[in-house]
Amino acid sequence: MGKAAVVKAFEDIKAALAVLNAEADGCGAEPFSDADPLAGLADGCLDILAGARTVEARIAGLKARAAVTYADTAHAIAGPGAPVQALEMAVAAEIGALLALGPRAAGAFLAASHAVSKELPLAFSALQSGTITWPHALVMVEETAGLDPAGAAALEAHFLDPDVPRPATAAPVGELPAYRFRAKARNWRERHHPESIEKRHAKGVADRRVEYRPDRDGMAWLSACLPADQAMAGWNRLTALARGMQGPDESRTLTQLKADKFTDAILGSGNNAGSAGAGGDDSGTAAGPSSRIQAQVLVTVPVFSLEGLTDEPAMLDGYGPIPPSMARRLVAEGAGSFYRVLVDPRDGAPMEIGRTSYRLTKAMKKALQLRDGRCTFPGCNNPSLDNEADHLQAWEHGGTTGISNLAQLCPKHHRLKHVTGWTPIPATQTGPPGWTSPTGRHYKAEHHDWEPPHWPAQLQSAAGDPPDFVYLGLSPGEEALEWFLHAPPA
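and the corresponding structure tokens:
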């Protein structure tokens, strides 16, 4: 069939798009609903959006396959004696001209297409079936870059292999926004990377920098690449200072206030009168934060990693994996964010904390932060610092104050829950709630990928499993942690 088949297929696609456009305009041959045409049209448009998302993903898979096949064919036609670099430039130029892409974008598209179609079979299959989108596939390409084939295959399988067990209430990665999938993939990559996070972090610290980039309308970007604890502490302090300045007589938005405080700090014109740092009382100067980092975020670090017995990454709330040396420094310097949280040694998940009264204890709030990580509304990335604990079933309607009836919501989505038809699906001890929209569509929750903590080699049993201990007092790990936190001065 050849070209005739291609022309016919695209003519069929155009005809199908004409039908769908008419339906989206409410001009179809039949209404979506005879009983309520307006509600039926609204619901039908959501069906069109859902179908279009799947088709777009499959079209992206088709584009990737066609681009790689064209490149392979062009190389075969040119023969072994053709100059490789010139041929690659010619191929990218042809694809760029067809897709209206610049040379750099065309080269990046071709490289990503090659990686997806040739090196990531599960991602390519998911793309072709429409279960992930092209942005999700790009995340997989970027997060597997630099890994050996076995590492890349393991990362891909963890998220896309249907035989890998997952909680029934957990949303598949294709149902998460691509930027949320990026965070999950990065966390897994950091935890399983063959090279120590300490070594990789040392390289990153050597590359710390400040960058300046002009923008439109007389504006410019000034950004910095910093160690995670410093960047997170600075961001949280800006947020705390800006929130403290808000009031009925302040016309600036929170975003504007943070930008102004940042400007004050780097230009040396700021003052800290009446303000507090991100981790409590601030003894810094007018020029900016004190040198002692106090990040008002959770730092979750395995006890053996805290003691230096393993090299397992810690988790900085709102960021992700950090080197254990950074976590040890935060704890040793008295970061007010470090809380002792009981976790299940089998899977690393925080354990249930409950209460019989309406108000939450500080420990319950921190446990909730650990379970949810951010606002639990679909697609929201608002971190723990800004969020509010909410009873899923209202207290006045019989709801309890246990973690299974609680969820973190940012102020915007907290209001949305109370004034619209969005309703949460029950949570679990280790998983946040899903949501049901006003149209009745169900959206599963984003779950943490809890994993059992790493055990030092000397504590592994002959079978490779962690030993079972029973202690009447503190365990050796807890005793070491108490000594680390409260050691007498030398």
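(Above: one complete record from the training split.) The CA atoms of residues 92 and 213 lie 28 Å apart.
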